[in-house]
């Protein structure tokens, strides 16, 4: 975290204390995605990638799940834990990629390809999950696609993750044309420049990056996969091809290693909306509650459960 004015620092410390005591009072658990602000990750009980957090959400004994992330993540928690109260601290924190597909478009694709199964990246609304056969995350997409018994797969909404999966599958993949507006701004030229500046560094990329960027990667994995890869690797330097929030714990866990981004700021504005203020208000006022209509929830849960059973 940047150095703050002392009074502001006191204010932040006060917020952290309030968050800790409200968390106890509400019997709440705070989950934070790996892209959240440093200070939010600091106060969270569990940090992780989409898959890890959805598993944790399903397992927790807490009455309240405060999901510091974007809307689809809180929705997944609400689908898996219908008796718990799920809160998203900032109502507007959405995922533009998830918003790129709607139900009529997916139904039309299904009509055009009746012999295909639908694999939907968890970065999607509950309504889209409910229309799908199975979900996947960036950590298990290849495994999920290859586990299916049809040759034809409709893959939504990320065309880049679909392309990445197609490198490891002989299935016919019909990709929806969605993308992540943050990851497509990681350019191959910038990666090449970073590699030239740091010739000993390994380049690790998220599969939401474009194929020309993936071609340059020494390793491709989900956000949590990056922590494991860096920890196990003998290399001392890494160029990281994903949102900059990941650097907070990468640096904390590997103080002797060096990390670079291909460009100065790789930010997901939606992930950065959640501040300690919003988190404290969320616990103070029990807002913003994320609920999924029961008919959609049940169908979406089948797609999520099928994924959770795989590895
Ligand atoms: P992970 O599943 O790797 O955490 O990615 C989620 C996401 O939103 C990436 O942009
Ligand atoms: Fe969505 Fe991209 Fe932000 Fe992930 S980084 S939440 S895919 S916009």
What would your notes on this structure say?
43% of the residues lie in helices and 15% in strands. It is α/β, with parallel strands linked by helices and 311 residues long. The strands form 3 sheets. Strands 2-1-3-4 form a 4-stranded parallel sheet, with helices on both faces. A 4-stranded parallel sheet has the order 6-5-7-8, with helices on both faces. Strands 10-9-11-12 form a 4-stranded parallel sheet, sandwiched between helices. Helix 1 (6-26) packs parallel to helix 13 (276-285), helix 3 (50-59) packs parallel to helix 4 and helix 4 (71-80) packs across helix 14. It is globular. The structure holds 1,3-dihydroxyacetonephosphate (13P) and iron/sulfur cluster (SF4). The site of 1,3-dihydroxyacetonephosphate (13P) has 10 residues, from loops. 1,3-dihydroxyacetonephosphate binds at residues 34, 49-50, 123, 137-138, 180, 208, 222-223.
